Request: fold
Amino acid sequence: MANDKSSIQLVTRGILSENPIFKLALSMCPAVGISTTVMNGIMLGIAVLFVQVFSSVTISIFKNMIHPRIRIPTYTLTIATWVTVIDLVLAAYMPEAYAKMGIFVKLIVAFAIITMRLEMFACKEPVKDSFWDGIGMGLGFMVGMMAIGFIRELLGSGAILGHDVLGFKPLLFFILPSAGFFVVGLMMAFFNWIEVYYKRTKGLQ
Amino acid sequence: MKDIITIVIRLTVSCLMAATVMGLCFIFTSSAKKHNEHVREQRVMYELLGYDAGAEIPESVSLYEIYRYVVSRGTGQSIAYLLPEGEDDNFLFVEIDLDGKFLNAKPMEMSEQDALEHDVRTKHIQADLGETVHAEFADQILIATDDGKRTAYIIGGKFQGFKTFINVMMAVKPDFSILGLEILEHEEDPGLGAEIEQDYFKNQFKDKPFEALKVVDVVKAPIPDDYLKALNNKVSEEDVLKFREQYKDKDIYAITGATISTRAVSNGVKAIVMKFAYRVTVLDKVLEAEHIAVPF
Reply:
């Protein structure tokens, strides 16, 4: 079954039909907590992308050696290792980026999306497919976080990427964590509506 | 049983592999990481003194580090300062009791490099004092001089913020008015308390005289538009100075939705500067009374 999936399909699937935030509803905690600005979304997205790709590939390589009854601890161990390595490398060689991304990278150990992709995909599929799936999921997460961040930053701080565009702050409420639930929920409904609408028009043709 | 053994072995092997990867990574990156942290601290320090990145630092400017220790003996506690003495690698360990009276001064020999390293320095001092006395490192201050005259102190400190600690570094003039404030570390809410790292907030403290800082409070009011522009350095330099002069005795404007963070920073800064001012005054008095010559 793995052979009929091209790399492009795997990547677009992660962004659209199986988007981690809007479709799979995984890793909602960071989606709600951190997505207060577009920049936060991008930073966390990049961090997740790297950890997801590295972990997926690692698990895919060692999939035959992992005992099925201890697979979850092994996944956690793999993720923790890669998070630590990325954290150390960023701190040492990219201090500028680390100053902005540092706190996000450390959060990733507890992300459900990464463990779930290892369990659902990487432990069964070949290395190449796992790599592209990791990229797709990482990008999908990043796109979702950016979309939520865009709305919350615009409505909460009246700015986009830190640049003041509205000149005033419409609703301070949108910066608070509780508003994240509303934004995520509404966007989820919106994307589902698009999907339903799209399928219906297609079905009518 | 056999199953359990394989599980144990495999889990152990994977843990060992993970540990090896992380350990190797740490070995290769630790020195670079330390270096980066040091560079960042240095940069913040020079920026606070008014030398932005790339600016030439005149040769007449020199920096002296002073380390404060709490010395406990069987009979009680005293405060000690490790001061540089003269041009060579000589340090002086000056002990002052809690009432500000001079106790003793011991010369200590260690290289400048050793003094910079916290562990090496503390070990050195401990060895010199003997086993019955315990020296505990408290904090350090930096004195900047230009042509032998003091131009600024650099002090740091930590205080409770809205969530966890806020770590700050600031430059203070010899008359204890604030030269600059930098937030090094904090975990305030993004968009709310995290605004404390914005220029418009930090600049409110700039040039605040000591007398005004002692009684500084927080007002819950929006910052006037023209003052906000000045705080963001969007007007000419003369106007910025004019506004600073106008507002120097006023209270700190609270960040919208983050009065607690604002209050934490203003009270924290107040406490750090006041304690520091007291300590330096005591130290200077002692140095003068005992005719101890120091390069700053």
